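Dear Dr. H.,

I hope your travels went smoothly. While you were away I took the liberty of generating a structure for the chain from your last submission, since the lab meeting agenda had it listed for discussion. I wanted you to have the full record in hand beforehand rather than looking at slides cold. The sequence, exactly as received, is reproduced here:
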Amino acid sequence: MTIVRPARLTVIGAGMAGSDAAWAAAQHGVAVDLFEMRPATTTPAHRTGNFAELVCSNSFGGEARSNAKGLLQAEMLAAGGLVMSAAAATRVPAGGAVAVDRERFSDFVTDTLRRHPLITVHTEEATELPSGVGVIASGPLTSDALAARLRERVGEPFLGFYDAAAPVIAGESIDHGVAYRKGRYGQAADYLNLPFSRARYERFYEALSAARRHLPHAWEELEFFEGCVPIEELARRGFDTPRFGPMKPVGLEHPVTGERFFAVAQLRQEDAAGRMWSLVGFQTGLKWGDQLEVVRLIPGLERAEIVRYGVMHRNTYLCAPRLLDATLALREHPELFIAGVLAGTEGYLESSATGWLAGTNAARRLLGLPPVVPPEASMLGALVRFLATAEAEGFQPMNANWGLVPVPAKQRRGPGKRERREQAYQQGLDAFVSWLGEMRSGAAAGLVAGTPEAPPVRQV
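The corresponding predicted structure, in token form, is as follows:
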């Protein structure tokens, strides 16, 4: 009697992208070898050995139908993606945004993957590329050894930019006599707001500008992704830059007095119990002593206790337009799929979504099925098409945004911007759900034809 072993897939990295890649492949009935080097080998940004550890913000972005990230969230929930399922199960209040309890979220993802019967976890550093079909989702802090092997394979230099995380404040150290709850533009009052007078802002700005940074010598040559620029770099660009960015006071008048402020810093809840709060938009690479001094110049944080300091680290990614198909396979090496930040995405949500697609297509390759790409009207479909076709010269990581998908044109007497985006949301989600149904029915036909039977989808 011949024993037929299930097809096996190697996934390197158990961050957002690798976790969803492993999950998607296993849901297709493919056995997965999931490699994660932590905690045996750590990185400058991570603290634990858990999967899908959140090293920057705890938010996956706004979920409104007029929000581009909201569409991608809906697509991943429809697809049964693990990361968005975990986010839904571990949410904390954050107004119109999907924010999670950092530890519960990571625990959820880790436990789900470790208990899956088709996933074998290897706690060791992968120093070589997979010999067969594989997904490389090693993230922005890919180890030197693996980066060298990948560089040899693709013959293309890596690109890089610097990314930063914001400090997290102990809730009991916040002065709630100063901080007030309010959401911008009438949204749910889930944020704590810290108001500045002009004089307080000037003092804060001077200290921020003078604070010492953890930086390489060639500061002027660093490239930042514009969605995650350190607060000290914003200050370097001009006196008003922070208060036209993360410290924008518009829509945050005091709910009792109606007073308008010169600038406002915001705190977002980090855990379900409200014991930790992160400074929104305050990613930083300041030295820790200076960081504490600057934070304590924020009204309401004069006695702040920082439970997690902001850190800055280098991200690594490939020039996707030169190397990747929209299926996320390397053009010259179609057995290898790239996902997450390494593929040129920015953000937890985008990393997880490309991980899901890479895992799906890697599994389909092992099962003898053709690769798939979501429809152009969907946010995921538009994102991976951008990665494959963008201008290669000066390529920068991309996140979900309305510039990627077809949005109804503005008309003189037609609907406004919000309504037009809501239309694009519905069209994109409808197209994605329809595509999911067609893909799954086609995969089922392929399975009946002789490939391994897919296990029932485990609810998470």
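Two observations you may find useful: The chain has two domains: 8-161+315-448, 166-310. The chain has a mean pLDDT of 87.

With kind regards,
E. W.
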